[in-house]
Every structure is written in C-alpha cells, then in structure tokens.
C-alpha cells in the first residue's frame, strides 16, 4: 500500500464516510460517557502495548465488550482513538490509520446493532445463560464478516490481489480467534453490569494479555526462523547467480502441491521451507563448478551431486524444519531408484522429497538457465507427466497439474534480469533438473 492506487483511496474514503455516518447519532445517544471514555482509553493502551511487543493484531475483547454494553454509535466510538493513535510502520501512515479506524468503527457498529436487535442488552444486564450467548455469537459473526469483507476489498484494490482470491479464506481464518475474543468481551460485559463492577471486568483481560504475550513470543520466534532461512537462501543465490529466485519459486510450487494433496497448514509451511532450502548444500560446492562453462567431468559431477548431503548436514540441527530436512537430503532421488545420493526407490523416498522433486524440476524447466532457455509451462508439465513413475511420483505430478490448472503459475519471486544462456551441458538423463 506504499503507492496507493486512486481507486483504493476512493474505497478508503467511502469506508471512512460510512464510519462517520455510524458516529453521527452520538449527540442524541443517552448513555453515561464515562464507560465510553474508560473503554476507549483501555483499547488505546492495548494497541500501544501491542506495538511495543511487536505483536501483529488488534485486541478485540475491549471493542466487543463495548458492543455488548453500549449503544451502537457509542460502541463504535471506542475504537476511534486507539486506531488513530496506534503506531504505523509502513507508509502512507495517515491513510493507514484512517483505514483501520474506519474499518473498526463500521465493524463495531454493526456488531452492536446485531447484539441489540437480538435482545443482547437485557441478556447482559440480567445474565441469562445460555440465551446471552446467542446475541453475542451473532454479533461476533457480524463483526468478523464485516472485517473480512472490508479487508478483501482493500486487498483487491490496494494490493492488486486477484478478485476471485481477495476474499478467499479471510472469514474462516479470522473466525476462531475473533470468537475467543468475543467470549472474553462477553465476560467483561457481564461482570461490568454485575455488582462487582468495571474493576472485576478488567480482570478478565489479565489471562488474555498473558496469552497475547505468549503469541507475541511465538511470532518473534517465527520471524527469527524466517530470517535464518532468508540468510541461507541469499547465500546460495549469491554463490550460484543463475538460480537466483529459484529457491523461493520451488517453495511456492511445493506449497501448491501440498495444498492440493490436502495437507494441514503446519505441513504446508514445512514443505515451503523444504522447497526454499532444497539447494542450500550448494554452499559446500566450489563456485567454479557451479559457474563452469561447458560440460562437467564425471569427477566434477560427483562433487556437485554431494550437495544434498552437504545441505542436510547444514540444516539437520535446525529443529523447526521437521521433515524439510529429509527433503533437502533426498530431493534428487528418483522413483525408479536411479537418483542420488542413496538410490532410494518408490515410497522409500520421503513424501516431502517427492513433492520438492516435482517443484524443483518444474521451475528448472520454466526458468532461463545458463544451459537452457525457459520452456513454456504446458511443455514443462508434459515433461513431468512423461517422467512420472520413473523420475517423479505420479501422485505429486498430478496434484501439481491440478493446482496449476486451478490457480495458474504466478511466482511471487522471480530472478533478476535474465542473462542470455551460455552453452553448458546439462546433466544427462535429468529432464530439466538443475545440477
């Protein structure tokens, strides 16, 4: 959103106007203002703490408690100061603040309207469980739905995401965490209206803050993992200039295969790591061999074929990689047993390695290399199918073909300006597989 298209600015402006319309009835709202002020200050403090802990997200319990306690315009006002004052790292900062504030104002207003329309105010004032859960649950669903709809719009307009994919998965992914925040918000609202008062309601936030802090530590650790992987990949790219961007593209293709096979999100992430790091062992191969013009001698080829073992030695102590380490070691094995380093056959080859083998070969064939020009995607797919059952696992090949048919091939990372290919002999018998 650094260079924001005009249509995205118009979209943000329209949402901001909608937020102002939601707030317009405030002068006529008959409600004590001290709860609004207290919740607004509390939410702003939570946003500042989130920025300090470098946690990506918004502390929704306070906003949803406001939706359960206050009339819709007053509840919407709770979100405004915190959103406008929250730190923003990326530019344009002012536009981002306006967008976030407008989005939250509209979402909270809708949640409060749904809650009040279903009799939630009375259910909170005189707790009637499980009836109180019904309007609260509907309000949480409405809140999550509005956020997802607005987020999808900004992705389509500002980030230029394809329209058919801009909204895909937003609502299901956000529903579970927002539902948990909604339960905490409901507990806050019930205690607030109880004889124990607002002080007891604020105690609900303590376990939420602890869990929030734990998640923040998890995200920091994850960021450290990503930095480690980026450093390794950049080192390989610097050493082997003709495969720049290859690792990231293989990671993307591996994810597509894993998703098509129905793997869970944890394994999909591990397969992405496997694709990204599959060639890290090239750091142990002399640069002169990686950049050599002309055919390799048998001795030189044997040295290059050691790179899977070098890579495995480099990453085997990195515990978070899981089965990605096996893919680094075995991604040049073949189904018929003619691969290296150990000549494994069929299902002896780890599943992660069979996924990466297909992704690696496909990107090698569709990228311009020092020894070959890029082939069109249909030609590369036909070659993969021809070699299925001998070089590649047919199940992985067909999964990749289906994924490409559904989503197309739009690699997020591409090599720098391609250089004209110079004559170099490819490894005999390895269709499109880089040495």
Number of helices: 20
The CATH first-level class of the largest domain comes to Mainly Alpha
- Secondary-structure element series: HHHHHHHHHHHHHHHHHHHH
% residues in beta strands: under 5%
Domain module count = 2
Overall pLDDT metric: 84
Integer-rounded radius of gyration: 27 Å
**Shape by Cα distribution:** elongated
The end-to-end distance, rounded to whole angstroms, is: 39 Å
Known CATH architecture of the largest domain: Orthogonal Bundle
**Largest sheet entry:** none
Helix content percent band: 55-70%
The low-confidence parts are 413-435
Explain this structure:
With 435 residues, the chain is mainly alpha-helical. It folds into two domains: 6-203, Arp2/3 complex 21 kDa subunit ARPC3 (Orthogonal Bundle); 223-407, Hypothetical protein af1432. Mean pLDDT is 84; it is low at 413-435. The protein contains 20 helices and no strands. The chain starts with 5 loop residues before the first helix and ends in a 28-residue tail after the last helix.
Q: How is the secondary structure organized here?
A:
Blueprint: H1 6-23, H2 33-52, H3 60-69, H4 72-85, H5 93-117, H6 120-125, H7 133-157, H8 163-166, H9 170-193, H10 197-203, H11 205-239, H12 246-260, H13 265-277, H14 287-290, H15 298-304, H16 307-315, H17 324-330, H18 351-365, H19 377-387, H20 394-407
Helix pairs in contact: 1-5, 1-7, 2-3, 2-4, 3-4, 3-5, 3-9, 4-5, 5-7, 7-9, 9-10, 12-13, 12-18, 12-20, 13-17, 16-17, 17-18, 18-19
